[in-house]
Amino acid sequence: MRAMVTGGAGFVGSTLVDMLVTRGDAVCVLDDLSRGSLSNLASALATGVSMVTADVRDADAVRRTASEFLPDVVFHLAAQIDVRASMADPAMDADVNIIGSLNVLTAAAEVGVPRIVLSSTGGAIYGDGAVIPTPESAIPAPASGYGLSKWTAERYGEWFAGTRALDVRVLRYGNVYGPRQDPDGDAGVIALYCDAALAGRRPIVFGDGLQTRDFVYVDDIAAANIAAATTDGVGHRVFNVGSGTEISVLELARAVGDSVGVPPERWRIDHRPPRAGEVRRSCLDVSRARHELRLGPGVPLEPGIRRTVAWIRSRSRDEARGDHGDALV
């Protein structure tokens, strides 16, 4: 399989690239490196993976990359993922997530790419009031600009499927975590808590901490992308990808503290005011993906946290030695 991966230098994208390389697939990455890092692709680039530094908002660059590489599938992961940024600057969020997605869909249709896998959000698209766990049939009611822009990109994908004969598969992710999620960037809460625990800082909780999320390990997301690209004859185009397990932020903080070995008296919650645009409860019904894409139950939360902690510790040791990945590429 020839696979083009937008956002392939990022946390999720680079994990997918490594999995594709292991399968023996030919891979081309398109990434503007605004959040991704070449260090994430060090092993992949050494095997011959091609890298195009470009923004998905640059329609000519996206079209040129697709026409030169001629992929069998495009995995579209490049996105603006910060809920707070989408609330503060919805035009920027829409520019990346809607216009960028349109550029990818248009290029795929013009070049004749058989299949495209769009990354979307299950955590931000359904909104409050949805049944828990939430099935794909629930009516989207996003509370943030991010959720709205990702839903709009999904609708454009559906439109291209109907008018341009593109085979479009949509994956709605839970809250993804794992190695390569940079705790210094716009990271998810698990990376932030692991980093805080290792550094001796208190975990910050916005609101009362009883809000819930569905956390899914990054390898399971990469595997779901490959399953969506390689499974024929599916009956649906939209799939939730998560653990199917609901956990509160307070429970998560305790789990991270226990994993790192922080004494409870030193792991006191720093409560802050709740943030706009964030849903109260989120947990995905993943039965469709498990049945049609034949996905397994995935990595449980506790071993996933341990792997994330180990990666952050290793990263800290590399930085202490001055081993900065980008400088080596």
Automatic annotation (TrEMBL):
<dbReference type="InterPro" id="IPR036291">
    <property type="entry name" value="NAD(P)-bd_dom_sf"/>
</dbReference>
<feature type="domain" description="NAD-dependent epimerase/dehydratase">
    <location>
        <begin position="4"/>
        <end position="242"/>
    </location>
</feature>
<dbReference type="Pfam" id="PF01370">
    <property type="entry name" value="Epimerase"/>
</dbReference>
<dbReference type="InterPro" id="IPR001509">
    <property type="entry name" value="Epimerase_deHydtase"/>
</dbReference>
<comment type="similarity">
    <text>Belongs to the NAD(P)-dependent epimerase/dehydratase family.</text>
</comment>
<protein>
    <submittedName>
        <fullName>UDP-glucose 4-epimerase</fullName>
    </submittedName>
</protein>
